[in-house]
Write a structure and sequence with these properties.
Helix content: over 70%
Order of helices and strands: HHHHHHEEEHHHHEHHHH
Oligomer: single chain
Number of helices: 14
Number of strands: 4
Radius of gyration: 19 Å
Distance between the termini: 8 Å
Shape: globular
Structural class: mainly alpha
Largest sheet: 2 strands, antiparallel
Length: about 325
Protein backbone atom coordinates (compact mmCIF):
# COMPACT_ATOMS: atom_id res chain seq x y z
CA UNK A 1 0.00 0.00 0.00
CA UNK A 2 1.54 3.28 -1.09
CA UNK A 3 0.76 6.43 0.82
CA UNK A 4 3.62 8.85 1.45
CA UNK A 5 1.39 11.94 1.77
CA UNK A 6 -0.86 11.27 4.76
CA UNK A 7 -1.92 14.92 5.15
CA UNK A 8 -3.07 15.04 1.53
CA UNK A 9 -5.15 11.91 2.12
CA UNK A 10 -6.72 13.34 5.29
CA UNK A 11 -7.43 16.65 3.54
CA UNK A 12 -9.09 14.78 0.67
CA UNK A 13 -11.41 12.97 3.09
CA UNK A 14 -12.32 16.23 4.83
CA UNK A 15 -13.11 17.84 1.48
CA UNK A 16 -15.28 14.87 0.47
CA UNK A 17 -17.29 15.15 3.70
CA UNK A 18 -17.68 18.93 3.23
CA UNK A 19 -18.87 18.39 -0.36
CA UNK A 20 -21.44 15.89 0.93
CA UNK A 21 -22.60 18.47 3.48
CA UNK A 22 -23.00 21.04 0.70
CA UNK A 23 -24.97 18.58 -1.45
CA UNK A 24 -27.71 18.57 1.18
CA UNK A 25 -28.47 22.19 0.23
CA UNK A 26 -27.96 21.73 -3.53
CA UNK A 27 -29.56 18.44 -4.50
CA UNK A 28 -33.26 18.10 -5.32
CA UNK A 29 -35.32 16.10 -2.85
CA UNK A 30 -35.19 12.88 -4.87
CA UNK A 31 -31.40 12.82 -5.23
CA UNK A 32 -30.96 13.84 -1.60
CA UNK A 33 -32.98 10.76 -0.62
CA UNK A 34 -30.85 8.63 -2.94
CA UNK A 35 -27.67 9.96 -1.37
CA UNK A 36 -28.99 9.20 2.12
CA UNK A 37 -29.45 5.58 1.14
CA UNK A 38 -26.14 5.40 -0.77
CA UNK A 39 -24.17 6.77 2.20
CA UNK A 40 -25.53 4.02 4.46
CA UNK A 41 -24.93 1.29 1.87
CA UNK A 42 -21.41 2.67 1.26
CA UNK A 43 -20.64 1.95 4.92
CA UNK A 44 -21.78 -1.62 4.27
CA UNK A 45 -19.32 -1.75 1.35
CA UNK A 46 -16.56 -0.20 3.49
CA UNK A 47 -17.01 -3.00 6.01
CA UNK A 48 -16.77 -5.55 3.22
CA UNK A 49 -13.69 -3.79 1.82
CA UNK A 50 -11.89 -4.19 5.13
CA UNK A 51 -12.20 -7.99 4.91
CA UNK A 52 -11.89 -8.44 1.14
CA UNK A 53 -9.89 -5.49 -0.15
CA UNK A 54 -7.35 -5.16 2.66
CA UNK A 55 -7.18 -8.68 4.12
CA UNK A 56 -7.95 -10.77 1.03
CA UNK A 57 -10.89 -12.65 2.59
CA UNK A 58 -13.39 -13.27 -0.22
CA UNK A 59 -16.71 -13.67 1.60
CA UNK A 60 -20.14 -14.34 0.12
CA UNK A 61 -21.92 -14.01 3.44
CA UNK A 62 -21.60 -10.41 4.54
CA UNK A 63 -25.34 -9.87 4.18
CA UNK A 64 -25.68 -11.72 7.50
CA UNK A 65 -23.68 -9.02 9.30
CA UNK A 66 -25.80 -6.29 7.71
CA UNK A 67 -28.92 -8.19 8.80
CA UNK A 68 -27.57 -8.71 12.31
CA UNK A 69 -27.59 -4.94 12.69
CA UNK A 70 -30.83 -4.55 10.77
CA UNK A 71 -32.80 -7.02 12.87
CA UNK A 72 -30.91 -6.26 16.09
CA UNK A 73 -32.02 -2.64 15.88
CA UNK A 74 -35.41 -3.21 14.26
CA UNK A 75 -36.66 -5.93 16.60
CA UNK A 76 -35.57 -4.15 19.77
CA UNK A 77 -37.40 -1.04 18.61
CA UNK A 78 -40.50 -2.92 17.46
CA UNK A 79 -40.83 -5.54 20.21
CA UNK A 80 -39.10 -3.96 23.21
CA UNK A 81 -39.81 -0.30 22.53
CA UNK A 82 -36.14 0.71 22.72
CA UNK A 83 -35.17 4.16 21.50
CA UNK A 84 -32.98 4.69 18.43
CA UNK A 85 -29.68 5.03 20.33
CA UNK A 86 -30.22 1.82 22.32
CA UNK A 87 -31.39 0.01 19.19
CA UNK A 88 -28.25 1.10 17.32
CA UNK A 89 -26.11 -0.25 20.17
CA UNK A 90 -28.07 -3.53 20.07
CA UNK A 91 -27.46 -3.81 16.35
CA UNK A 92 -23.71 -3.26 16.81
CA UNK A 93 -23.52 -5.89 19.57
CA UNK A 94 -25.42 -8.40 17.41
CA UNK A 95 -23.07 -7.77 14.51
CA UNK A 96 -19.93 -8.04 16.67
CA UNK A 97 -21.04 -11.29 18.34
CA UNK A 98 -22.11 -12.88 15.05
CA UNK A 99 -18.88 -11.81 13.32
CA UNK A 100 -16.81 -13.23 16.20
CA UNK A 101 -18.59 -16.60 16.07
CA UNK A 102 -18.54 -16.81 12.26
CA UNK A 103 -14.90 -15.72 12.20
CA UNK A 104 -13.82 -18.37 14.71
CA UNK A 105 -15.47 -21.08 12.60
CA UNK A 106 -14.97 -19.87 9.02
CA UNK A 107 -11.33 -18.79 9.38
CA UNK A 108 -10.37 -22.41 9.88
CA UNK A 109 -10.76 -22.60 6.11
CA UNK A 110 -9.13 -20.57 3.35
CA UNK A 111 -9.75 -19.54 -0.25
CA UNK A 112 -12.78 -21.05 -1.97
CA UNK A 113 -13.71 -23.03 1.14
CA UNK A 114 -13.93 -19.77 3.15
CA UNK A 115 -16.21 -18.29 0.49
CA UNK A 116 -18.49 -21.34 0.54
CA UNK A 117 -18.61 -21.53 4.35
CA UNK A 118 -19.58 -17.87 4.68
CA UNK A 119 -22.24 -18.36 2.00
CA UNK A 120 -23.67 -21.33 3.91
CA UNK A 121 -23.80 -19.41 7.18
CA UNK A 122 -25.57 -16.53 5.44
CA UNK A 123 -28.13 -18.92 3.98
CA UNK A 124 -28.70 -20.41 7.44
CA UNK A 125 -29.43 -16.95 8.82
CA UNK A 126 -31.81 -16.28 5.91
CA UNK A 127 -33.71 -19.50 6.65
CA UNK A 128 -33.80 -18.70 10.37
CA UNK A 129 -35.38 -15.33 9.56
CA UNK A 130 -38.03 -17.06 7.46
CA UNK A 131 -38.63 -19.80 10.04
CA UNK A 132 -39.28 -17.39 12.90
CA UNK A 133 -41.64 -15.28 10.80
CA UNK A 134 -43.85 -14.64 13.84
CA UNK A 135 -41.10 -12.38 15.18
CA UNK A 136 -39.17 -11.38 12.04
CA UNK A 137 -42.07 -10.87 9.65
CA UNK A 138 -40.71 -13.60 7.35
CA UNK A 139 -40.11 -12.62 3.74
CA UNK A 140 -42.50 -9.68 4.08
CA UNK A 141 -40.52 -8.10 6.88
CA UNK A 142 -41.98 -5.33 9.01
CA UNK A 143 -42.01 -1.57 9.23
CA UNK A 144 -41.07 0.60 12.18
CA UNK A 145 -43.54 3.20 13.36
CA UNK A 146 -42.45 6.80 12.66
CA UNK A 147 -43.06 7.60 16.33
CA UNK A 148 -40.39 5.06 17.31
CA UNK A 149 -37.80 6.59 15.00
CA UNK A 150 -36.86 9.48 17.24
CA UNK A 151 -33.51 10.37 18.79
CA UNK A 152 -34.25 12.77 21.62
CA UNK A 153 -35.92 15.73 19.96
CA UNK A 154 -34.65 14.72 16.51
CA UNK A 155 -37.19 13.26 14.10
CA UNK A 156 -35.23 10.72 12.03
CA UNK A 157 -38.05 10.51 9.47
CA UNK A 158 -37.32 14.09 8.44
CA UNK A 159 -35.35 14.01 5.12
CA UNK A 160 -32.80 16.63 6.24
CA UNK A 161 -32.08 14.97 9.58
CA UNK A 162 -31.98 11.58 7.89
CA UNK A 163 -29.39 12.85 5.38
CA UNK A 164 -27.14 14.25 8.09
CA UNK A 165 -27.54 11.12 10.22
CA UNK A 166 -26.42 9.01 7.24
CA UNK A 167 -23.55 11.43 6.60
CA UNK A 168 -22.39 11.25 10.23
CA UNK A 169 -22.33 7.45 10.02
CA UNK A 170 -20.37 7.64 6.77
CA UNK A 171 -17.87 10.19 8.16
CA UNK A 172 -17.25 8.08 11.27
CA UNK A 173 -16.81 4.92 9.16
CA UNK A 174 -14.44 6.83 6.86
CA UNK A 175 -12.30 8.01 9.78
CA UNK A 176 -12.26 4.56 11.41
CA UNK A 177 -11.32 2.83 8.15
CA UNK A 178 -8.57 5.36 7.45
CA UNK A 179 -7.10 4.93 10.93
CA UNK A 180 -7.23 1.14 10.73
CA UNK A 181 -5.58 0.80 7.33
CA UNK A 182 -2.83 3.29 8.21
CA UNK A 183 -2.07 1.67 11.56
CA UNK A 184 0.58 -1.06 11.99
CA UNK A 185 -2.26 -3.59 12.38
CA UNK A 186 -3.73 -2.45 9.11
CA UNK A 187 -0.42 -2.93 7.33
CA UNK A 188 -0.25 -6.45 8.74
CA UNK A 189 -3.64 -7.15 7.15
CA UNK A 190 -2.33 -5.98 3.78
CA UNK A 191 0.77 -8.15 4.25
CA UNK A 192 -1.48 -11.15 4.98
CA UNK A 193 -3.35 -10.48 1.76
CA UNK A 194 -0.09 -10.40 -0.21
CA UNK A 195 1.73 -13.32 1.42
CA UNK A 196 0.18 -15.02 4.43
CA UNK A 197 2.97 -17.57 4.89
CA UNK A 198 5.65 -14.90 5.03
CA UNK A 199 3.71 -12.94 7.67
CA UNK A 200 3.40 -16.12 9.75
CA UNK A 201 7.14 -16.76 9.41
CA UNK A 202 7.81 -13.25 10.73
CA UNK A 203 6.08 -14.23 13.96
CA UNK A 204 2.67 -12.59 13.59
CA UNK A 205 -0.48 -14.37 14.74
CA UNK A 206 -2.23 -14.52 11.37
CA UNK A 207 -5.42 -16.12 12.70
CA UNK A 208 -5.88 -13.40 15.35
CA UNK A 209 -5.26 -10.64 12.80
CA UNK A 210 -7.77 -12.12 10.34
CA UNK A 211 -10.31 -12.63 13.13
CA UNK A 212 -9.94 -8.98 14.14
CA UNK A 213 -10.49 -7.98 10.51
CA UNK A 214 -13.67 -10.07 10.29
CA UNK A 215 -15.04 -8.63 13.55
CA UNK A 216 -14.29 -5.03 12.55
CA UNK A 217 -15.77 -5.70 9.14
CA UNK A 218 -18.87 -7.24 10.72
CA UNK A 219 -19.33 -4.28 13.08
CA UNK A 220 -19.17 -1.78 10.21
CA UNK A 221 -21.70 -3.82 8.21
CA UNK A 222 -23.95 -4.12 11.28
CA UNK A 223 -23.73 -0.35 11.85
CA UNK A 224 -24.97 0.14 8.30
CA UNK A 225 -27.80 -2.35 8.83
CA UNK A 226 -28.91 -0.85 12.15
CA UNK A 227 -28.82 2.66 10.71
CA UNK A 228 -30.78 1.52 7.67
CA UNK A 229 -33.55 0.14 9.92
CA UNK A 230 -33.70 3.31 12.01
CA UNK A 231 -33.54 5.82 9.16
CA UNK A 232 -35.70 4.06 6.58
CA UNK A 233 -38.00 2.16 8.90
CA UNK A 234 -38.02 -1.18 7.09
CA UNK A 235 -36.63 -4.55 8.18
CA UNK A 236 -36.91 -7.42 5.69
CA UNK A 237 -35.45 -10.79 4.74
CA UNK A 238 -34.56 -9.46 1.27
CA UNK A 239 -31.41 -8.01 2.80
CA UNK A 240 -30.34 -11.51 3.90
CA UNK A 241 -30.42 -13.01 0.40
CA UNK A 242 -27.24 -13.83 -1.49
CA UNK A 243 -27.84 -10.78 -3.68
CA UNK A 244 -26.93 -8.53 -0.76
CA UNK A 245 -23.74 -10.50 -0.22
CA UNK A 246 -22.70 -10.09 -3.86
CA UNK A 247 -23.60 -6.39 -4.13
CA UNK A 248 -20.91 -5.11 -1.71
CA UNK A 249 -18.36 -7.22 -3.62
CA UNK A 250 -19.37 -5.47 -6.87
CA UNK A 251 -19.38 -2.04 -5.23
CA UNK A 252 -15.87 -2.59 -3.88
CA UNK A 253 -14.52 -3.98 -7.16
CA UNK A 254 -16.04 -1.07 -9.11
CA UNK A 255 -14.78 1.63 -6.77
CA UNK A 256 -11.43 0.02 -6.11
CA UNK A 257 -10.58 -2.69 -3.62
CA UNK A 258 -8.26 -1.58 -0.80
CA UNK A 259 -9.05 2.08 -1.35
CA UNK A 260 -10.79 4.00 1.44
CA UNK A 261 -13.15 5.96 -0.82
CA UNK A 262 -13.64 3.22 -3.41
CA UNK A 263 -16.75 1.74 -1.73
CA UNK A 264 -18.53 5.11 -1.92
CA UNK A 265 -17.66 5.56 -5.61
CA UNK A 266 -18.70 2.01 -6.47
CA UNK A 267 -21.98 2.16 -4.54
CA UNK A 268 -22.91 5.54 -6.03
CA UNK A 269 -22.06 4.44 -9.57
CA UNK A 270 -23.98 1.17 -9.39
CA UNK A 271 -27.00 2.75 -7.68
CA UNK A 272 -27.39 5.42 -10.36
CA UNK A 273 -26.78 3.02 -13.29
CA UNK A 274 -29.61 0.80 -12.02
CA UNK A 275 -31.82 3.77 -11.13
CA UNK A 276 -31.47 5.52 -14.51
CA UNK A 277 -31.65 2.46 -16.81
CA UNK A 278 -34.61 0.93 -14.95
CA UNK A 279 -36.63 4.04 -15.86
CA UNK A 280 -36.39 3.10 -19.55
CA UNK A 281 -36.40 -0.69 -19.66
CA UNK A 282 -37.02 -3.77 -17.55
CA UNK A 283 -33.81 -5.22 -19.04
CA UNK A 284 -31.70 -2.79 -17.05
CA UNK A 285 -29.31 -5.54 -15.99
CA UNK A 286 -28.10 -5.62 -19.61
CA UNK A 287 -26.88 -2.03 -19.25
CA UNK A 288 -25.41 -2.82 -15.86
CA UNK A 289 -23.48 -5.69 -17.45
CA UNK A 290 -22.17 -3.48 -20.27
CA UNK A 291 -21.09 -0.83 -17.75
CA UNK A 292 -19.28 -3.46 -15.70
CA UNK A 293 -17.47 -4.82 -18.76
CA UNK A 294 -16.32 -1.32 -19.79
CA UNK A 295 -15.12 -0.59 -16.29
CA UNK A 296 -13.20 -3.84 -16.10
CA UNK A 297 -11.55 -3.09 -19.47
CA UNK A 298 -10.54 0.49 -18.74
CA UNK A 299 -10.30 0.42 -14.92
CA UNK A 300 -9.03 -3.09 -14.13
CA UNK A 301 -8.38 -2.22 -10.48
CA UNK A 302 -11.61 -0.32 -9.99
CA UNK A 303 -12.07 3.41 -10.50
CA UNK A 304 -10.00 4.71 -7.59
CA UNK A 305 -7.62 1.74 -7.66
CA UNK A 306 -6.68 2.56 -11.26
CA UNK A 307 -6.48 6.29 -10.55
CA UNK A 308 -4.11 5.54 -7.66
CA UNK A 309 -1.95 3.26 -9.78
CA UNK A 310 -1.67 5.64 -12.74
CA UNK A 311 -1.80 9.18 -11.38
CA UNK A 312 -2.21 9.57 -7.59
CA UNK A 313 -0.09 7.02 -5.70
CA UNK A 314 -0.75 8.82 -2.39
CA UNK A 315 -4.47 7.94 -2.41
CA UNK A 316 -5.25 5.82 0.66
Amino acid sequence: MRNDRPMAAILLHVVIVLVLVALQYILPDYHRAVFSRVLVLAVFAMGYNLAFGYTGLLSLGHAMFFCAGLYGAGMTMSMLGWNAAAALAAGLVCGAVLALVIGLLALRTTGVAFMIVTLMFAQVLYLVILYFNEYTGGDQGFSLRPAARQLGTLDLTDPTIRYFAALILFAVALAVTHMIVRSPRGRVLVAIRENEDRVRMLGYDVFAAKLAAVVLSGVLCAAAGATYAILFGYVGATFATIQYSILPLLWVLLGGAATVLGPLIGTLFMYYVVDITSNYTTAYLLFVGVALILLVLYFPKGILGTVRERWLPWLP
